[in-house]
Amino acid sequence: MTAALDTRVIRQPAEAALAWLSARRADFALGDDALAADGEVNRSWKPLGELALMCAAVTRNTAPSDPLHARAADLLAFAWEETGRGELLARLQRLEPFATYPLEVYAALASTGLRHPGYEAAAGVVARTRGWQLTEQTATRRLGVLNAEERTGVRRSDGMPRALRSTWLGGLPEPWTFERDSGYALTHVVFHLTDWGRAGPAGLPPDLAAYLADWLPPWLDTCLDARMWDLGCELLAVAASLPDLPEPAVLRDAWERIAAAQHPSGALPEEGDSDDGVEPDFARHYHSTLMAVYAAALTTGRLDDGALAGPHRRHGAQGVLG
């Protein structure tokens, strides 16, 4: 009989990671260039939107009495205030009506009930144009935009199934073709299909769920062996989105390796090692640290709901390669 998983192996690195993120909240603040045409979106809006996504997942998967819940709720309120309670997003919508990133940042906040009617009205007008609907995007990006439209209610669409089958994961590719880029693509496909954990395993088509149940554990092991902590945490979040969680031994080993890779402050490097004697560089650590908290919230949420590791197919199951 497989030993049960002690959730402390997940909660302890998550608590340390969230403490570091809270201590570095000022680094998530929007700068004076947030509305500038030449502003660096990846250094301003992107981190703030990812912070909101993570906080939403934590508050959704923890009890109000849980210290993790309180800390995440505080950071979520911070993110909302940084947007001027949505007003900066409304102004950004007028400046860049066909940019998709404001909608995706807003969708993360709207999923928790934080809404700005003016932004939604303006975004809804643009989303109904042919120009918006015919913008050329990769299939994975398209899934993200469609999900954000659906979550905010600015437009309803039945395009997600079609976009899915054009993605790497949707084609059920040969498992040995997995690499860094396909790994990040597949994790985001799952995030969009499950609405960042809100829909749970029900958001995954059965063939994708079965394929991932077979191949995600060895991919995860490969990434952790390579000290690719950011992608490893994203794969752990995918694992928490499957109908059957991986075996407890798989999860235990992965989280022990994540914890060992953490800086004493709780920060997790995207790859490789942190220098224990130096405060972690925000740009190199923030995303992987967010993903560690996100994966932990999804996993402990499933475990708290009584999810257990189920029967798994043999790796290399007949038909996957042929």
UniProtKB/TrEMBL annotation:
InterPro entries xrefs: DUF6895
Query: Which residues belong to any copy of the DUF6895 domain?
Result: 15-297
- Superkingdom, natural source: Bacteria
A Pfam family annotated for this UniProt entry: DUF6895
Q: What's the name of the protein?
A: DUF6895 domain-containing protein
Q: Which organism is it from?
A: Streptomyces lomondensis
Taxonomy of the source species: Bacteria, Bacillati, Actinomycetota, Actinomycetes, Kitasatosporales
